[in-house]
Design goal:
The structure is a homodimer. Chain A is built from seven helices and six strands, in the order βαβααβαβααββα. In chain A, strands 1, 2, 3, 4, 5 and 6 form a six-stranded parallel β-sheet that branches. Helices cover about 35% and strands about 15% of the residues of chain A. In chain A, β1, α1 and β2 form a beta-alpha-beta unit. Chain A is of the alpha/beta class. Chain A has one domain: Flavodoxin domain (Rossmann fold), CATH 3.40.50. Chain A is globular and about 55 Å long. In chain A, α1 runs parallel beside α7.
Chain lengths: ~240, ~240
C-alpha cells in the first residue's frame, strides 16, 4: 500500500513523535510505500485565506469554498496545498497522528483540513460521504489524550470518545471526504509513565501489522438517507 | 456587561461579518462595553509552538502544557496571548462568531483556544468544568452552516448539531474552561438567499436584546461524577 502519515506535534521527542517514527519504520519494513507530512517541521500554513490561491475569481468578496471549487478546476491552488492533495491522491491509506487538544485536532492539523480538503477536490454538493472525492481510501486516527479512558466512556465526564468527541473528525472530516475510517488507535494519558508508553508502542506495532483486519467504523451510506437528509426508518436500529 | 467577541472569518463583507457588526452596534447601544478580537484582521497566530513563551523551562524537550503552566505563574506568555487572556478576564460574556468549517471552528479560532486557554490559566487538573479558570462568565457560539437544519437532527446525515457536533466546543472548550455556555445561535445556510439573511439578522438582534433570558446548556457539575469520572447513578436521567 501507499501510506500517507499526517503528523502534527511540535516536539519530535514526544510520544506522538515516537508513534510516527514507528509508523515509518514498521510500515516500510512491511513493504509499504510511506510518505510523511510533518506539519510542524514543514511550517505548514494553518490559516485559510486569499494566499491559498494563485488568482481569485472575486477580489472584492472573498468566498473561500467558491474559490476552492474554481481552483480545483483551473489547478490554481497555492503550491503547498497542491502538494498535499497530490499525496492524498497517491495514498491508499492515511494515518493522522496527533495529540487530542481541546477535544479536537491541533490548529495546524485543522488548517490542513480547512485548506487541503477543498470544495471540488474532497467533496461537492453531490459527492459527500461514501461518494466523497477521496473514496476508495482508508484512514485512521492515532491520538493521545490527557485524560484517562474512563473519562471518555458514555457516562464519563469528558463525553463518549467515539460518539461525542471523535465523531466530528471521523464522520465529519474523514468520512465526509470519502475516506473510510477504521477504528482509531488511542493512547490514554501516555505521558504519565514509561511502562504505559512501552505497552502502547507494542500494541501499535501489532496494529500496524494487521491494519487490514481492523474494522471500519460503521457509518450509513448516503443511500440510507431520504430527500430531507433523514435516516430512513428501516435503518434506524437504535 | 463587558462583552468580548471572538470573530473568525476572512471576509469582512461576509454574513459572519454582518453578525459581528450587529453584535458591536446592538450591544453598544444597549449600554454594554464591547471588545472585539477580529482574528483574521489581527493576523492572529494559529499554531501553538515555542514562540508562545518568552522563555522555556526545558529547551530540549518541549512540553506545551507544562510550559503554559509555568508561563501562567511567571507571567511570561508572548504578548498576543497575554492580551487575549486579559480580555477574557475583563469579560462577563464571550461571543464566538465563526462559520462551521469541517464541523468545527476554523483553524485560526482553534489556535486561539490552543494558545489562549492555557493550562494554569483556563484550567488545571483540579479546576475544570464548573471550577474552570474562567468561571463566573457566560459564553455563546454564533455560527453559520453549509448544510440545512434537517441534516443536523438526531437522524440527520451530518449528525445532531448539539450532541455530536457542537459538543466538543460547548462542553469540551467553553465549559471545560469554566465558562457557562448558553444555547448557540445558528444561521442555517445563510449564504443561500437574501431573505434568510435578513430574517436571521432580525432574529439575532432580538437575541442580543434578551441574552440574559437564553437558557444555559444543561451540563452536570463535577460533583455529579464519582472518583472514576463516571456520572453517579442518581443523575442518570437518560
Amino acid at each position: 500500500m501507499n501510506v500517507l502519515i499526517i503528523y502534527a506535534h511540535p516536539e519530535p521527542k514526544s510520544f506522538n513523535g515516537a508513534l510516527k517514527d514507528l509508523d515509518v519504520s514498521e510500515l516500510t519494513s512491511l513493504g509499504h510505500q510511506v510518505k510523511v507530512s510533518d506539519l510542524y517541521a514543514m511550517n505548514f500554513k494553518a490559516v485559510a485565506d486569499r494566499d491559498d490561491f494563485q488568482m481569485l475569481e472575486n477580489e472584492d468578496f472573498f468566498k473561500y469554498a467558491k474559490e476552492q471549487k474554481r481552483a480545483t478546476k483551473t489547478n490554481s491552488f497555492s503550491k503547498d496545498i497542491q502538494r498535499e492533495q497530490e499525496k492524498l491522491l497517491w495514498a491508499d491509506f492515511v494515518i493522522f497522528q496527533f495529540p487530542l487538544w481541546w477535544f479536537s485536532v491541533p490548529a495546524i492539523l485543522k488548517g490542513w483540513f480547512d485548506r487541503v480538503f477543498a470544495s471540488g477536490f474532497a467533496y461537492s454538493s453531490e459527492n459527500r460521504y461514501d461518494s466523497g472525492g477521496l473514496k476508495g481510501r482508508k484512514a485512521m486516527l492515532s491520538t493521545t489524550t490527557g485524560s484517562p479512558k474512563q473519562a471518555y466512556t458514555p457516562y464519563g465526564i469528558d463525553g463518549d470518545i467515539h460518539e461525542r468527541i471523535l465523531y466530528h473528525i471521523n464522520h465529519g472530516m474523514l468520512y465526509f471526504a470519502g475516506l473510510e475510517p477504521i477504528e482509531p488507535f488511542i493512547a490514554w494519558t501516555p505521558s504519565h509513565n514509561d511502562e504505559d508508553r512501552k505497552r502502547y508502542l507494542e500494541e501499535y506495532k501489532r496494529r500496524l501489522n494487521n491494519l487490514s483486519e481492523i474494522p471500519a467504523i460503521s457509518y450509513h451510506p448516503t443511500s440510507h438517507y431520504d430527500e430531507h437528509h433523514q435516516l430512513k426508518k428501516e435503518y434506524r436500529a437504535f
